[in-house]
Amino acid sequence: MKGYYHITEKIRDIAIADGYINVVTEGDISEVDLNKQTIFPLLHIVPTNATLGAKTTSIDFTLICLNVVDINNKDIRDELDPFFKQDNEQDVLNETLNFLNNIVSQFRRGSAYSDLFQVFGDPTAQPIRDSYTNLLAGWSLDFTVLVPNEANIC
Predict the structure, then answer these.
(1) If you compute the radius of gyration of the chain from its CA atoms, what whole number of angstroms results?
(2) What residues contact residue 115 under an 8 Å CB cut-off, 6+ apart?
(3) DSSP line for 73-95
(4) 36 SS3 class
(5) Residue 92 near residue 69, CB atoms below 8 Å
(6) ∠49-29-142 over CA atoms, to 5°?
(7) In angstroms, rounded to a whole number, what is the distance separating the alpha carbons of residues 29 and 42?
(8) Which residues are within 8 A (CB) of 33 and not within 5 positions of it... i.e. 6 or more apart?
(9) Which residue, among 103, 115, 118, 141, has the nearest Cα to 20 in the 3D structure?
(10) H or E segment at 125?
(11) Which residues, in sequence order, are bridge partners of residue 128?
C-alpha cells in the first residue's frame, strides 16, 4: 500500500534530486536545530491531516522551505533603489517558492504522479519572514496528496 511513508520518502527524494535543498526533515519544526547554518536551504515536512476514503486516502501536508537571509552592510540610503533593501530576502523568497512549485509539479505530472501520488486541489503558500531565532525566510506550502486506498476489508 502506498501511504504516508511512501509520500514523505517521495518528497525527500524529489527535494534531494533537485539540488537546491541541503537537508530534509520531518515532524515538529520545534525539534529541528534551526541555529545550524549548514542545514540551509531546509525543507521540513509536517503532516497535518488524513482522510481515509473508500477508494482514496488523502493526506494533508505543510512543507516549510527556509533559507538564511544575508544582510548587506551597505547603508540603504546609498542605494539607488531601496526596493531591494539591504538583504537577499527577495532572492530567498523567489528561490524557495520556485523550489516548492517544482515539488508540486512532480505530484501533478512528474515522477510522483507516475507513482500514483496526486495533488488534490490547488496548494496555497504563505511567506515566512524572520520567524525563527536567526534571519530566515521562505514559504510554508499547504497541500493534499491523494493515493489509492488499497486497504483490504476481509
Answers:
(1) 18
(2) 2, 6, 10
(3) -S-GGGSS-GGGTTBSHHHHHHH
(4) coil
(5) yes
(6) 40
(7) 11
(8) 39
(9) 103
(10) strand 118-129
(11) 138
Residue 124 CA: distances (Å) to CA of 23, 44, 78, 98, 150: 23, 16, 37, 13, 28
The pLDDT tens digits of the residues spanning 43-85 come to: 999 999 999 998 999 999 999 999 999 876 555 555 666 666 6
3-state secondary structure of 65: strand
What pLDDT score was predicted for residue 154? 59
Instruction: Show the cell assigned to 48.
Output: 497535518
- Strand (E) positions, 12-107? 23-26, 42-52, 56-68
Cell 538564511 found at: 68
**The total number of residues written for the chain in this structure:** 154
In order of 22, 50, 72, 100, 154, the CA distances from 19 in angstroms are 8, 29, 26, 13, 44
DSSP structure class, residue 146: E
